[in-house]
Amino acid sequence: MQISDKQKAILALLADGQFHSGTELADALNISRSAIWKQLNGLSELGIQHSAVSGKGYRLERPLELLDKSKILANLDAQARSSINSIEIFDQIPSTNSYLVERALDNTPSGAVCFAEQQTAGKGRRGRHWVSPFGSNIYMSILWRFQASPLAISGLSLAIGVAVIRALKCQYTNIFHLKWPNDIYYQGKKLGGILVEVSGESDGPCAAVIGLGLNIYLPESEAAEITQQWTDLTQITGQQQFNRNTLASTLLNELLRVITEFENVGITAYLDEWREYDCLKDKPATLFIGQHSYDGIVKGIDDNGLLLLTRPDGGTQAFGSGEVSFSTL
To answer: Tell me, what's the pLDDT at 166?
Structure first.
């Protein structure tokens, strides 16, 4: 489903979160007041809620800024701009990662970037559905082609985590953390997630689709189905209005800097910084791999980015995959 040009124009006028009369909106778009009402009802079907008060007009329940390609490009640094082959922004798409995985099969070159206002089949860890209210968060993916083998870029998701924290530090003064292997955390709650999908020959080259979902605002009603502790930037910062285009640009600047240099420097260049952000170190946790679970105390990561888990018997094992949950031993 795509938003019509008229609906986008209405959203632009209502983006400030203030009341605007039906007459004002109708005059601005050169349509009738009843047409305004109809367009707003169509937006409600996408989950964009508004208030209508007699004598005041219409107001969005919260300020909203749609993603805009020209605004994102305007805030990119020279390196990021030269690394991007294309930017697409969808109103609604099943999954930005799935879209670029398909495009990778069609020989789309490196630097293809995809954003979505809403994902209907966004993917999280272990196949979980990613809750995706319209126009509220960041859902993005980048396609990048490496000459190296999939094994040689196995630490990429950790390096991407470092890039995301760098971007957040550029925008906010809060202290953010990483949870192995690919989650963004704040005070023990999940703020975002990274999903890297790699395809290619065992000895190279390979294509990686790097996906990021970052919570800016999650309504309680939609977040009810989330089974883990979560948070969003609205709760963290107390802000009600966010410049999502500026944040998107900042994320691209940091992500593309890491992606373009990763093949030459590898995970080694990011280990110390990743360890600074580690929220699991020395904490009891359970690691899930398929149907198996392993309890222990997390001892950080080794120099290959593998999780070090000290088991109850005193032995320490290194794991290259799995999902970690905080636990009490």
So the answer is: 98
Q: Are 255 and 262 in contact (CB under 8 A)?
A: no
Query: What is the CATH number for 36?
Result: 1.10.10.10
Secondary structure (3-state) at 286: strand
Domain coverage including residue 262: 69-275
CB 39 within 8 A of CB 13: no
Q: How far, in Å, CA of 221 to CA of 263, rounded?
A: 42
The structure tokens listed for 273 are 């910084």
Task: Let me know how long the chain is.
Answer: 329
Separation CA 11–CA 285 (nearest Å): 45
Contacts of 74 (CB under 8 A, 6+ apart): 249
Find the range with the poorest average confidence among 41-45, 276-280, 282-286, 289-293. Answer: 41-45
153 and 81 share a domain? yes
Amino acid letter at 213?
G
Mean pLDDT of the 74-87 span: 97
pTM > 0.85: yes or no: yes
Strands (DSSP E) contained in 91-137 are: 112-116
